[in-house]
Every structure is written in structure tokens, then in C-alpha cells.
Amino acid sequence: MLLPRKVGRKEKDFVLYCVKNHCKGGNVMDSARKLYLDNIRWMTVVLVVIYHVVYMFNGVQPFGVIGPFREHQLQDCFQYLVYPWFMALLFVVSGMSARYYLQSHTTKKFLKDKTRKLLVPSTIGLFVFQWLLGIYNLKIGGGLNIAGLPMPILYLITVLSGVGPLWYIQMLWLFSMLLLVVRKIEKDRVWNFCSKAPVWSVLMLTIIVYGSAQVLNTPVVTVYRFGIYGFCFFAGYFLFSHEEVMERLCKWWWMFDAASAVLGISYTVRYFGENYAIAPVLNNIHACVYCWFAILGILTTMKNYADISTAFTHWMAKKSWGLYIFHYLPIAVISYELHEHAPDTPEVLVYLLVGTGAFVGAFLLDELISRIPILRWCVLGMGKEKKRV
Q1: How would you classify residue 148: left for phi > 0, otherwise alpha for psi between -120 and 50, otherwise beta?
Q2: pLDDT by residue (tens digit) across 178-210?
Q3: Average pLDDT, the chain
Q4: Residue 56 contacts residue 354 (beta carbons within 8 Å)
Q5: Is-contact 57 66, C-beta < 8 A?
């Protein structure tokens, strides 16, 4: 019979250390799944879908849309309220998630998974599936003229025109690869330093947000904002991934929410009618301050009150990736066909049909494509050996 062994002081200290790190926000716990980040991610993707429904019939941003129902549309306000911050927020969340992932996975695993999940769908997926979206983008833009064009050339044009929302995962892959280089150089020195950041210093980063918004922006296709989105990704990794930083910020959640509400309303009123997707409306000081405070408000509010999982939120978290990948195709198809074949459809019914079609169509496509191994890999970046979690 084995008698219980007396536990020494050093062993007790080790047990206490493990408990602290696993249960009270230490490094090991930091690598655990943050439910509030899952909820932010799927909720933001839902906003992206709604934004694209409104965008298709907006009267402000004329690129690749059906066009407005009338000269002044109140629903266009939605675009001003979300566009300055919602994609920046996704990059912050992605940066935080990258830190947590790398705390429990090797660099090689990170490189392999990110390449499969991000690079494959945004490159190979374009040739395999997203060219279908390219056809409708060209139709909507009035640029699809089959006569005289060889089929291989037309196919390449539709592929290039089918990028749609995939620009985000293209940029995310680039930032993820750059992160691996940065990590090799800084060896957590910068990350450890950022853990000490007081609230006032986080607020002062508004200056860097503004500065980064002025640089590395591509012409014509203005969604590729490498400056501000790169800063947001690395801010997520180096700053917001610290539990102690988030705890300090969470005490001021109400201030961030109030400030972002005032900034968002005033921004919308001030610039309504101007093109919100290009400079100077997109990257002025008002837009940048609003962007940063909205990010702070959402991160802290969700951490305080939405770090939970229900059957519905768990399902939405699982489906958010497919929703993002597929939603724009049904929006483009339904919008174009209604415009061509039922132009007198009432405005409310158009929004209802397009909005419902975006969600239902995306979920159905996700279910279908995810069941076909080769398409699952090419279009969704999912490995056949793993279930989605």
C-alpha cells in the first residue's frame, strides 16, 4: 500500500504558480479561448453583411453598386457609423488572437495554418470559386463585354474582379507573416514593455492611428489601408493581448462608449453626403479619433458583459468565417437580378430580399462547400482532417 507523500514547500509554490497562471489571467490562461473575442468577431461580420446590403444601393460611394433609390437616403447613415472602425476592429481582434495562438503553438504551425486559412482562399479560391462573384461585379459595374474577348482573358478578368471581401484575409496573411519576422527580432521585449501601458498612453495612441491612416494607402482600390490596419493588427498583438492592460481599460468602458457615440453621430452629421470611403473624409482626425474610441469601447464593453457562450453565439462563431467568405455573392446576384428583371420592386422589399438572401445564401454555400474536401480546402482554407471549432 502506498502512503501519501508529504508535499514540500517548493512543490506547494509550484502548484500555486500553476493555479495563478491558469486561473487568474497568466500566460497559460491568456492562450485559452476568449469568448468575447469570438462574439466581437461574429457580430462584426454581421455588421459587414448589413453594410454591404446598404452599400449596394447607397447614394454616396458610386463604385460597383446598383445605385440609390432616391437622392437622399437615411439608411446611408449606417455606412458613416460603421465604416471608420469595423474593419480596424477585426484587425485588432486578429492581432490579439495571433498572440494567444502563438502562446500554445509553434511558429511553424502558425505559418502553416495561416497560409492554409488565409492565403489559399484569397488566391486559389479566387480561381476556383470567387470568379463567379467577379462576373456579377462586372455586370453591376457595366464592364462585362464578352464580345471579342477570348475566354481565358475573360476568366482572368472575372478572377481579378472577384476579390470582394477577400482583401481583408489577404492583408491579414501579410501582417501574420510580418509578425513572425518582428517576433524573431523583438523576442517579446516590446510585448513585455506594453504590459505596463497606462490608460492615458492608450488614449494617446490616437495620434499614431491618425498618422498611420495617412500612409500606405493604395489608390483606386481604397480598402487596402496598410498603414492603419497594420497598426491595429500589431496593437492587438502587443497591447490588447495583455490581460492587465484590458483590465485597466475595462474600468473606463462607459467613457469609451459615450465618447464613441458622440463622435460617431457628429461624424455622420458633419460628413453625410460626402464619400466616406476616400480621403479626406476617411482619414481625417475626426474619423481616426472615432475609430480608436469605438474600438476601445467595443473591446471593453464586450469583455465586461459578453465574455459568454450560448448555443446561438457558439453557432454564429462557427459560421462567421463562411458568412464572411460567401455573403457578397448572393448580395450581388439578387441585387442585379432584381434590378434587371424587377426594377419596380418596393425599396423595403428589395432590402428584405437582399438581406435575407445574403445570410441564407452564405450559410447554405458554407454548408455545401465545407462538405466537399477539395473545395473546402481551396475556398474556405479548411483542412480535411479537422473539424471546425
Answers
A1: left
A2: 999 999 999 999 999 999 999 999 999 999 999
A3: 90
A4: yes
A5: yes
For 99-129, how does the pLDDT look when each residue is reduced to its tens digit (9 = 90+)? 999 999 999 999 999 999 999 999 999 999 9
Residue position matching grid coordinates 507573416: 177
pTM, full prediction:
0.89
**Residue 71: predicted pLDDT:** 85
pLDDT at 86 over 90: yes
Distance between CA atoms of 43 and 47, rounded to whole angstroms? 6
Neighbours of 205 (CB within 10 A): 16
Cell matching residue 166: 477577400
CA atoms of 371 and 223, how far apart (whole Å):
31
Helices and strands, number each (H, E), in the chain: 21, 0
Q: How far apart are CA 192 and CA 285, in angstroms?
A: 30
**Could you report the per-residue pLDDT of 30-42, keeping only the tens digit for each?**
446 799 999 999 9
| Number of other residues whose CB lies within 10 A of the CB of residue 37 | 22
Residues 296 and 89: their CA atoms lie apart, in Å, by 9
Which residues, at least 6 apart from 384, have a Cβ–Cβ distance to it below 8 Å? 373, 376, 377
Please state, in angstroms and as integers, the Cα–Cα distance from residue 214 to each residue in 81, 86, 218, 225, 231, following that order. 20, 18, 11, 9, 12
What pLDDT score was predicted for residue 385? 52
By the 10 Å C-beta count (0-12 exposed, 13-18 middle, 19+ buried), 212 is classed as: buried
CA dist., res. 101 & res. 105, Å (int): 6
161 grid coordinates: 474582379
C-alpha 271/C-alpha 307 separation (Å) is 35
Query: How sure is the predictor about 220, in pLDDT bands with cuts at 50, 70 and 90?
Result: confident
255-263 contacts at long range (C-beta below 8 A, 24 or more positions apart): 256/293, 256/296, 256/297, 256/300, 256/301, 257/297, 257/301, 259/293, 259/297, 260/290, 260/293, 260/294, 260/296, 260/297, 263/289, 263/290, 263/293, 263/294
Cβ partners under 8 Å of residue 146, min gap 6: 154
Domain ranges of the chain: 33-339+346-380
Alpha-carbon distance 333 to 318, whole Å? 25
**C-alpha cell of residue 140:** 453591376
C-alpha cell at 67: 445605385
